[in-house]
């Protein structure tokens, strides 16, 4: 996967710092596709400009141009390998053979715990802080989900509506996601939730938002998922299950945690809105 980059490095003369940066990227290729130049600089105790100069030495216009190139390589190589079984009927056959006569409660509980641990181990505080900052700082926020993922989108819509202004869900039956985000701009963001079998419509929406310069916060299962190539901030969650359907407990946890970071960032600024909502829903007992 790093062969192309190694070939590029052979043709240029690097400084001591640039060699250090090159070694880091080669050793952490997948991670380097999705972190910022500042992240790399902090990890290596070098300046941000050193990282940018390194990419320009390789012939790129800057770090983002370089990252776009290596991310494309990474995605293409990973997607060329067969993914885990995602067709429900095939997963059902596999799950029946795996579960057999085992304790289904204990087995499923264990699986859910593993998915929750995955969310914590693969997304640090900085990732949540960045995602929360991008969402809170955007003018309009579009939630992009489809099929089973809409349960996450519905809950996220409820929570974010209480925290922020101009939050929209794009799964309305009368309009498709393209209709919803047709006037999206660089001041807006989409929050996409995408898991196997990935929706082509969600992919198109991410491309549309990316082309418009909008921020893309993506919750997905791996850094090589189809939408990841467009992500501004990536949060990875395991949806592994011991039956035919994806398990969304870890996704719900990650979404709620993200909303908790946003709530902390907004502080008391949403207090008046919450009081107003409670004033009127209390009249009809709609809690």
From TrEMBL:
GO biological process, one term: carbohydrate derivative metabolic process
Coiled-coil blocks: none
Gene Ontology molecular functions: carbohydrate derivative binding; DNA binding; DNA-binding transcription factor activity
Transmembrane regions: none
UniProt keyword list: DNA-binding, Transcription, Transcription regulation
InterPro entries xref list: Homeodomain-like_sf, HTH_RpiR, RpiR-like, RpiR-like_SIS, SIS_dom, SIS_dom_sf, WH-like_DNA-bd_sf
Record's protein name: HTH-type transcriptional regulator MurR
């Amino acid at each position: 996967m790093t062969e192309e980059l190694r070939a590029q490095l052979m043709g240029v003369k690097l400084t001591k710092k640039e060699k250090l940066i090159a070694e880091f990227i080669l050793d952490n290729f997948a991670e380097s596709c999705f972190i910022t130049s500042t992240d790399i600089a902090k990890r290596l105790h070098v300046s941000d400009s050193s990282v940018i100069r390194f990419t320009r030495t390789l012939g790129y216009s800057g770090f983002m141009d370089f990252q776009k190139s290596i991310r494309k390589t990474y995605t293409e190589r990973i997607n060329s390998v067969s993914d885990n079984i995602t067709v429900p009927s095939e997963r059902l056959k596999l799950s029946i053979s795996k579960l057999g006569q085992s304790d289904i409660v204990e087995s499923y509980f264990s699986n859910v715990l593993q998915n929750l641990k995955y969310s914590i181990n693969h997304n640090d505080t900085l990732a949540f802080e960045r995602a929360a900052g991008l969402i809170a700082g955007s003018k309009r926020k579009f939630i992009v989900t489809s099929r089973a993922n809409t349960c996450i989108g519905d809950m996220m819509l409820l929570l974010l509506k209480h925290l922020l202004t101009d939050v929209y869900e794009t799964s309305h039956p009368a309009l498709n996601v393209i209709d919803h985000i047709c006037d999206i701009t660089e001041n807006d963001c989409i929050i996409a939730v995408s898991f196997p079998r990935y929706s082509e419509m969600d992919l198109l929406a991410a491309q549309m938002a990316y082309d418009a310069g909008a921020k893309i916060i993506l919750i997905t299962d791996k850094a090589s998922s189809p939408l990841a190539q467009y992500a501004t901030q990536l949060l990875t969650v395991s949806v592994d299950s011991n039956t035919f359907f994806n398990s969304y407990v870890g996704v719900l946890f990650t979404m709620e945690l993200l909303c908790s970071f946003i709530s902390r960032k907004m502080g008391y600024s949403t207090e008046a809105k919450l009081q107003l909502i409670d004033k009127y829903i209390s009249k009809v007992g709609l809690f």
